[in-house]
Amino acid sequence: MFVEAGGSHNRPHFHAYYEDKAALYAIDRLERLGGSLPVRQDRLVMAWAEIHLEKLLVNWNTLQTGRPPARIEPLR
Fold first, then answer.
1. Where are the domains of the chain?
2. Tens digit of pLDDT per residue, the chain (76 long)?
3. Rounded distance, CA 16 to CA 36, Å?
4. CA–CA distance, 34 with 13 (Å, rounded to integer)
């Protein structure tokens, strides 16, 4: 998640990166909004987001107030 210079984003989302690929995922309704990751990594990101949905929403709201988001554990 990133702070938008000059204002807040409209839809809660996060960015995921794998090697030279990047994708954007919505938090309010879990879905990939843009970009692409390999199928396996895309599935892992979606599973991770589903597990941590509440934390992602808290982080989104925290970020919108100008504070840094908390770290969320990766899949193990």
1. 1-76
2. 555 555 556 789 999 999 999 999 999 999 999 999 999 999 999 999 999 999 999 999 998 888 889 999 988 8
3. 9
4. 11
- E strand segments, 1-76: 13-18, 21-26, 31-36
Q: At a CB cut-off of 8 Å and minimum separation 6, what does 53 contact?
A: 27, 30
For 44-75, give the secondary structure using H, E and C.
HHHHHHHHCHHHHHHHHHHHHCCCCCCCCCCC
- 15: which strand partners? 24
CA atoms within 13 A on the CB side of 32: 17
Global pTM reads 0.85
